[in-house]
Amino acid sequence: MGLVSGLIRRMGGGRPVLASLRPGLDAAAEWLARAQDATPDDGVAAYYDVKKKQWAASYPETTGYIIPTLYDYAHLTGRAEFADRATRMAVWESEIQLADGGVRAGNMDAPKVVPTIFNTGQVLFGWAAAYEQTGEARFAESLRAASDWLVAAQDDDGAWRRFGSPFSHAGVNVYNTRVAYGLALAGRTLGEPRYIEAACANVDWALTQQQPNGWFAHNDLEHNDRPLTHTIAYATRGVLEVGAVAGVEAYVDRARTAAAAVAAGQRRDGALPGRLDADWRSAARWSCLTGNVQMAVVWLRLVELGASADEPDWLEHARGCIAFDQSRQSLAHACGARRGAIAGSAPMRGEYMRHRYPNWAAKFYMDAVMRYMAATGVD
């Protein structure tokens, strides 16, 4: 793997210690730039496959939510070229938006071109950020068209049952609260209360699937009895953020319950198990690196929203997950397709995105690091 950034040192019975954060943040941003440049368009390659030694095609879904991350990074560092990259991504997303307002499933080389709920919801983040940054009408138009399509596709109880991805687990998915979060942001950005109302309707439905211990049913790409920390984090943050936008404290409380349960299962090395069963027990020996930093963002958001003194130490839990992922990031790999990247699983042979570096892992790593830096002043 080459020289590894921030190898976890041990203190106090296994407590992971962070190395300097800025080098890894910069390296992840530069890897995303290479992932964009590896494609024939302005989208970001879905992943780099180590076994095949090749980049995948552009992925509209995750390119969409990489956009705000690169704007945030550009503002933090003064590296305007990353804001330019984000805007190019947003223009590309508008150019490939389907006529009905939806966003296609899968990568650009997928055998079917069909709109899907989740992917559409994720690109809302990019268009909202691009509109706020540039004021260009095209982004507001794309944002409105996609939001209208999502509202029209929503069932009366708030769930989305139609237009699921043909490339993942069929059926209703609680992690679509991540779509609701995008709709809530669209509503705030465009001044459209009906989008926020639709977001709340979805969260209301999702909370009917939450068990008393905070665990969500119907919340995985394949195994609903043992969901990924990746989809657990999607669902939890969706509930949390819709609550923050809509001012519904009950949603924030329900998200806090799930967040505390995940934190209780954090390993001594800072990682989370890749999957958790209905009793919040480990259901995987490997760790999902994306899920680790997604949960770190959830915990950091709880700090930003004013966590009380009797809650878990959210900052400490976030630090542990970031430190673990940091220890798996190479800053000096000879291969540019691996340098600065974050893998799917640790070890890489783990079940999630086996032997691949997904672009969304780097994106959420950057989000977690930037929020941690803002919360602590650590650089």
TrEMBL record:
The record's section on Gene3D superfamilies has:
1.50.10.20
Q: Which InterPro entries match?
A: 6-hairpin_glycosidase_sf (IPR008928)
GO biological processes:
carbohydrate metabolic process
Q: Which domain of life is it from?
A: Bacteria
This one is known as Squalene cyclase C-terminal domain-containing protein
Q: Which organism is it from?
A: Salinisphaera orenii MK-B5
